[in-house]
Design a protein that fits this description.
The complex is a heterotrimer of chains A (390), B (341) and C (297). Chain A is α/β, with parallel strands linked by helices and 390 residues long. Chain A has two domains: 220 residues, Rossmann fold; 129 residues, Response regulator (Rossmann fold). In chain A, the strands form three sheets. Chain A has a seven-stranded mixed sheet, sandwiched between helices. In chain A, strands 2-1-3-4-5 form a five-stranded parallel sheet, with helices on both faces. Chain A starts with a helix and ends in a 9-residue tail after the last helix. The two termini of chain B are 30 Å apart. Chain B has one domain: ABC transporter involved in vitamin B12 uptake, BtuC, CATH 1.10.3470. Chain B is built from twelve helices and two strands. The longest helix of chain B has 36 residues. In chain B, α2 packs antiparallel against α8 and α6 runs antiparallel to α8. A two-stranded antiparallel sheet of chain B has the order 1-2. Chain B has 341 residues and is mainly alpha-helical. Helix content of chain B is 73%, strand content 2%. Chain C has 297 residues and is mainly α. In chain C, β1 and β2 form a beta hairpin. Chain C has two domains: 181 residues, no CATH class; 69 residues, no CATH class. Chain C has a two-stranded antiparallel ribbon. Helices cover 74% and strands 3% of the residues of chain C. Classes of the chains: A alpha/beta (390), B mainly alpha (341), C mainly alpha (297). Chains in contact: A-B, A-C, B-C. Chains A and C meet through α2, β7, α7, α8 and α9 of A and α1 of C.
């Protein structure tokens, strides 16, 4: 271990030298994201989004003349690993800012580590309401839309499509899945719909057909689901095999159908609707350029994770330039209330709870593409500030 | 995988030899502690935080691996779910500290609770042995981890943050759990104490029964010992050691999450023990440092660290079945033997 | 009254058919595990990964245009050398150690870690799914049943029957059973024990691969899919009895029913604990499992 310390010191010394030769020290941004394990496809989008924006900013002269340097660490979607890696980036690499965590457990734990280290972090993926709600932290910002925003946009659209619909809920049986269902249920019932049943399946469930009896018996017009990843592939394709998709409008959380699993779902994804903060179809010049550049660089479409991570770099750049510093306290003040441009339009960081306010979209899948079928202004979707710590 | 009792020696010789090997283990622990002290001094001099905390984590995981070795090395029982007790200790400690940030109270409660929990679950696990033991412990941990993962009062899948920084009163000094050097030294002392207690227990007549149990289970009852009780006792002891190590985790990192009791955590402890050397106790500590460094270094270079760790692990099982300490320890013992005469 | 009928028709009956198809799937995965365990006394922790390799092989070969029905033959054949080499190259190296159970378990655990990551390097982390070979569904008494699931149940039963016949009624099977009963005696009777061991391991691995091909269209394909069935498969092997094939079949079908029917009454999340409790109860009251051990019955 001592040897690696020496090595690191040496390494640090050499990079310092070479950088000093260039200009000022680079601004270091740590990225703790799942590069292995179940969440690695999301980690990949995070990485691509950050790298693309960094390349652009650096080519245009960096932030206040300083280049951005990204330092990646694999968190394996495990909070214990995430905290250890965050500690490494904060204490050993002396990063100025940190991002990348995906599952909410990691975001919360790393947020606390940042608070103790006196640094700032932002999440571009986690959408658990608690992160900017009852578990908010003065050192944690969220640039992506949270579950509540997504629900609000989706519910408004569903109520328009099928007024007073009978809705069935199917979620994964764990905290996140349950709270996402609860939020949507509350919102849609407020708009006149009736609930005709709900079922919670274990996470990583193999076979959803065992719940189809209850689903059929309830005769719903709308199915809301908050399953994600492989679970969605199984749920929707099994529903298709059992002929259940015919007269049913299937809607879900933003992580239910994504660019990672849509290929495997195939035609069973047709008609699926969700409320998200991003779609490649958003029609504005920034997004067109972003999508083209992203495709050219990585030979893949960006998704909401890639887009929000891309936008984060511009958020940080704007904050540092406003603060004229990378010091935690000054940057925090600059970030509060900041308005900046992203591929999905203008976002504003709400100072009361560090939650970004942004226009929300409803997208529906047609032939493997997410088409924008509705939108809701940021102010309507944002919901109340529930953060009491600052 | 061989314990001293497998060596083809007569009974008296075997005892001498195992005593010598145990002394070699003690020497290796002293070497470990001295190296750790040098490391701490270096860390303090350089004002480092990260490496000290990482090393503290390695020590905590070393204590956990020690408990796996107590089971595997001394009873031949492989637990594939021992992270259950590590996580149990971490959660109980976290809950206690959130109520009252008192170190000794938290540790006391963990001790009692883990003994009770280890006893109850041990009643189930000890109905069986061999591969069945491995699979039952695997299942036990799966079931409990799932319960924690779904219990809102325990933070469910998100775990719990906000475990306060605790002062540890040690009479003359008070160690703060967020002071890198002090907490590292404290953990070093604590884990060494766990080692010493384990080594002492396993060296008493109780430990001998276990050794005999391993060598020939059917004959032990004729000697007047209950195999079932002996095995249950060691199971409870191993649970307590794992839980006490786990209790330090939230003090170091300030949070707990259900991942602490997942299979990956249990598997890591097994890898640690096998690489370090089964049945040596001290191997768990060395193994933990090796694995932590390995993961930290390789994890930064490639996201495919599982391939590397998996291959190293397989190579050790095949080519170095007694692990690193199984290789080093007899050599130290020979030195001791030569020096003693 | 109608509500009771409704319940049976819409809930109970489909649920039990689901249980049957899940049970057949579990048995397909567990079959290879139990044969390997019955003969070699080896718990193959990498069994789930061999199942995943089968599924990926089907996916890759299907992508270059090979017909699904051919894959059912080709993939298991490709798995045989892989299994044979794994046994000779890895298992045999530690097979004669005193703690064979533990050592081989550790070795295959390491292998599982490596294989899972290798699959991710080779095929990427995203979920993939081959298209259903037999599309469409039929309706019987108001119960929808996808054709492929029906095929899966029938074909699965055929495979299970074939395996039972091979092990119990052929000369090859007799050698396997003899080696499982008493290794030394079998050797002195001229049974090539080492080859029988490797061959049996390869057979078990081929079965896992076949299960991968068959189940991929239903459960989709991703690098960590090997962990999916493994808990259930281990439970089935234990409950059924150490390496008993009939026991595995009975336990697999029964436990799958327990799992799906219990999910009607309690939160589905508790179905795993319920299945686990049954395993513990069986171990307490009938440690040898429901049926006897391979070669001994």
């Amino acid at each position: 271990m001592t040897r690696s310390t020496t090595l690191l010191t040496l390494l640090a010394a050499t990079t310092m030298l070479s950088v000093q030769a260039l200009a000022a020290d680079p601004i270091k941004i740590g990225v703790v994201t799942p590069l292995s394990g179940t969440y690695s496809p999301i980690g990949q989008q995070v990485r691509w989004g950050l790298e693309l924006a960094t390349k652009e900013v650096n080519a245009a002269g960096g932030i206040m003349g300083r280049q951005i340097e990204l330092l990646f660490e694999d968190e394996e979607a495990n909070p214990s690993v995430a905290v250890q890696k965050a500690d490494k980036l904060f204490e050993s690499q002396k990063v100025d800012f940190l991002t990348g965590t995906v599952n909410s457990g990691s975001t919360l734990a790393v947020g606390q580590t940042a608070e103790r280290a006196g640094k700032l972090i932002a999440t571009t993926v986690s959408f658990a309401d608690s992160i900017t709600g009852d578990k908010c932290s003065p050192n944690v910002f969220r640039v992506n839309a949270r579950a509540g925003q997504q629900s609000a946009a989706l519910a408004a659209w569903v109520a328009k499509q099928k007024p007073k619909a009978k809705v069935f809920f199917l979620g994964p049986d764990y905290e996140m899945g349950r709270s996402t269902v609860a939020t949507f249920k509350r919102t849609i019932e407020g708009l006149g719909a009736t609930s005709v049943g709900e079922v919670f399946a274990p996470l990583d469930n193999k076979d959803y057909t065992q719940y189809f009896g209850q689903l059929r018996q309830a005769r719903p017009e709308v199915l809301y689901t908050s399953v994600a990843g492989n679970d969605t592939v199984r749920l929707l394709t099994q529903m298709q095999d059992f002929g259940l998709l015919g007269n049913l409008l299937v809607v879900g959380a933003s992580g239910t159908v994504t660019s990672q699993n849509i290929g495997a779902i195939g035609s069973a994804a047709n008609g699926f609707g969700t409320g998200v903060g991003y779609s490649v179809q958003i029609d504005n010049p920034q997004n067109k350029k972003f999508v083209a550049d992203f495709k050219a660089a990585y030979n893949a479409d960006p998704d909401l994770y890639g887009a929000d991570s891309y936008g984060l770099i511009y958020f940080y750049k704007a904050a540092v330039e406003k603060a004229q510093s990378t010091e935690t306290d000054k940057v925090r003040v600059a970030m509060r209330g900041l308005t900046w441009m992203t591929p999905q339009g203008e976002k504003t960081m709400r100072s009361e709870d560090h939650q970004a306010v942004q226009p929300m979209y409803v997208v529906q899948v047609r032939e493997g593409k997410f088409n924008v079928v509705g939108d809701v202004a940021g102010s309507e979707a944002i919901g109340a500030d529930e953060c009491k710590r600052f | 995988m061989l314990s001293p009792s497998h060596l083809p020696l007569s009974a008296t010789l075997r005892h001498d030899r195992s005593g010598l090997l145990m002394r070699a283990s003690h020497v290796l622990v002293v070497v470990f502690v001295v190296a750790a002290l040098v490391f701490a001094a270096l860390g303090a001099a350089l004002g480092d935080t990260f490496f000290l905390r990482l090393a503290t984590e390695a020590l905590i995981l070393g204590g956990f691996a020690l408990s796996v070795d107590i089971l595997l090395g001394y009873t031949g029982l492989l637990s594939l779910g021992h992270a259950l007790y590590f996580g149990f200790g971490a959660y109980v400690s976290a809950l206690m500290l959130k109520q009252t940030p008192s170190f000794w109270l938290a540790m006391g409660v963990v001790l009692v609770a883990a003994a009770a929990f280890g006893f109850l679950t041990g009643l189930i696990a000890n109905r069986v042995r061999g591969v069945y033991f491995a699979l039952v412990t695997f299942g036990l941990a799966q079931v409990f981890a799932k319960v924690v993962y779904n219990t809102r009062a325990l933070g469910a899948s998100d775990g719990m943050i906000g475990i306060p920084i605790v002062p540890i009163e040690l009479g003359v000094v008070t160690v703060m759990s967020n002071a890198p050097v002090a907490f590292f030294l404290f953990t070093l002392g604590f884990v060494t104490m766990l080692y010493a207690v384990s080594a002492y227990l396993l060296d008493t007549s109780f430990g001998r029964v276990l050794g005999a149990l391993r060598a020939n289970e059917n004959r032990v009852p004729f000697l007047g010992y209950s195999t079932h009780r002996a095995r249950l006792a060691i199971y409870v002891f191993a649970s307590v050691v794992a839980a006490l190590s786990g209790a330090l985790y939230p003090m170091l990192r300030g949070f707990v999450s259900p991942e602490l009791m997942f299979f990956a955590a249990s598997g890591n402890a097994v890898i640690t023990v096998v690489i370090g050397g089964v049945g040596t106790l001290v191997g768990a500590l060395y193994g933990s440092v090796i694995l932590t460094v390995l993961k930290s270094v390789i994890g930064t270079m490639t996201e495919h660290h599982l391939i590397v760790v998996g291959l190293i692990f397989m190579a050790v099982v095949i080519f170095l079945p007694k692990g690193l300490m199984g290789f080093v320890r007899p050599r130290v013992a020979r030195l001791l033997d030569g020096g003693g005469r | 009254m109608t509500s009771t009928l409704d319940f049976i028709q819409f809930v109970l009956a489909p649920q039990m058919i689901t249980g049957l198809s899940l049970g057949v799937a579990v048995v397909l995965v567990a079959l290879g595990l139990t044969i390997i365990f019955g003969l070699l006394d080896v718990i193959n922790m990498a069994h789930g990964e061999f199942y995943a390799i089968g599924a990926y092989a089907a996916l890759a070969l299907g992508a270059v245009g090979i017909n699904f029905w051919l894959l059912l033959l080709i993939v298991p054949l490709l798995m045989i050398p892989l299994g044979y080499l794994t046994e000779r190259g890895l298992i045999q190296r530690v097979f004669n150690k005193p703690d064979r159970h533990v050592t081989t378990l550790l070795l295959t655990f390491g292998l599982a870690l490596v294989l899972e990551d290798v699959l991710k390097v080779a095929f990427g982390p995203n979920t993939q799914r081959p298209s259903t070979p037999i599309p469409g569904a039929i309706e019987m008494f108001g119960i929808m049943m996808p054709n492929y699931r029906l095929f899966l149940i029938l074909f699965g039963i055929a495979i299970i029957a074939a395996v039972i016949v091979i092990v119990n009624r052929t000369a090859l099977g007799a050698m396997v059973r003899a080696a499982a009963f008493d290794r030394n005696m079998a050797a002195s009777l001229g049974v090539p024990v080492t080859k029988v061991y490797a061959g049996t391991f390869a057979f078990g691995v081929a079965l896992a691969g076949l299960a991968g091909v068959l189940l991929a269209p239903v459960f989709s394909v991703f690098p960590t899919m090997g962990r999916d069935f493994i808990f259930m498969a281990f439970t089935v092997v234990i409950v059924g009895g150490m390496g008993s094939i009939i026991g595995t079949v009975v336990a697999g079908l029964l436990l799958a029913q327990v799992q799906v029917l219990s999910s009607l009454v309690v939160s589905p999340v508790w179905s795993d604990p319920i299945v686990f409790s049954i395993m513990v109860l069986v171990l307490v009251f009938r440690p040898q499992g429901l049926f006897g051990r391979l070669g001994h019955a």
